[in-house]
Amino acid sequence: MSYSSFKNIKASFKFSQAFDKKDLPAYAIQYIKSETVLAVYKTERDFGIFTDKKLVLFDNGKNRKQIYTIPYKSISMLSVCFLDDSSELTLFIDSGCSINLMFVDMYPKDKLRLRVLYNCVDKIISGEKPIKEDMESLINNKINL
Asked: How far is CA 4 from CA 14, 77, 119, in A?
């Protein structure tokens, strides 16, 4: 067995807001047709979709569009760090790659949404069923403090 070292997919995705899944472009929906969308976040030009099976990251550059699909089954560990007005989610992939997702300008409700999302993804990665109420609150975008 050989081991290769991989670089991070991107230095970081700086998500600035939660995004309504109803406003996803048609090309993005093609990647998640048979899945349940838990949360969508966007930057000025990029966005990330968390489903019940995988994470899809869209890195939209000036002359290119790069799409990363990360099945949860390929994630060996994840961590979340909450700061005053931001948070960072780091995913460690079986291949040795790590993915850093920054969430900036967060309010308490945004942090709660990320905490619930983290708990759901953590359960999925661990082979457990996420808490039904948590899944429903994400799916219906009804996060209450």
From this structure: 27, 18, 30
